[in-house]
Amino acid sequence: MARAFIGFGGNIGDTRQLITDAIVCLAQRRELQILAKSCFYQSAPIAAAGGDYINAVIEIETELSPYGLLHVCQAVEQEFGRERAYTNAPRTLDLDILTFEGVSQNDAELTLPHPRIIERSFVLLPLLEIAPNFFLPNIGELKSYLPQVTNQRIEKLPCRNCNCGEKDVSSQTAH
Fold first, then answer.
1. pLDDT at residue 49, as a whole number
2. 27, 80, 95, 140: which has the fewest C-beta neighbours closer than 10 Å?
3. Which residues participate in catalysis according to the annotation?
4. Which pLDDT does position 116 carry in this prediction?
5. Could you tell me the fold of the domain covering 2-156?
């Protein structure tokens, strides 16, 4: 089993509910287990059109390969109406594999770790909420990159009836 982190985002529709439902979809797959999930964050778009985004991050263990996980994530996006009209278009749901344990690669289909992981507050803050001392080879401690994203508008949203940020969170918990 490999440990991986997946980032969620969207800015069309009831994004909080869409992300919650997408997490439940992933939790129902026997090839992976959700270990932790962050609270939701609302952030301004970066180099993108549309309104504010809602974001979250989950930590999983999986039997899937990185490409297997990518295909599962893309299938979930499709199930929730993701359209790729143009680069950085507003979206119902976006799932990004942020890291996959032991894998570093850069090809046309999948780059790991995610190439902008240290440039986005909407990735760093929820990821560090559930893994505060996260370290990546060739990058270092992710928390050391927080000063570089302080100019990005982001707000942690209040959670509803959940234990966000705690390990071994039930995948059925709603926000």
1. 73
2. 140
3. 82, 91, 94, 96
4. 92
5. Alpha-Beta Plaits (3.30.70)
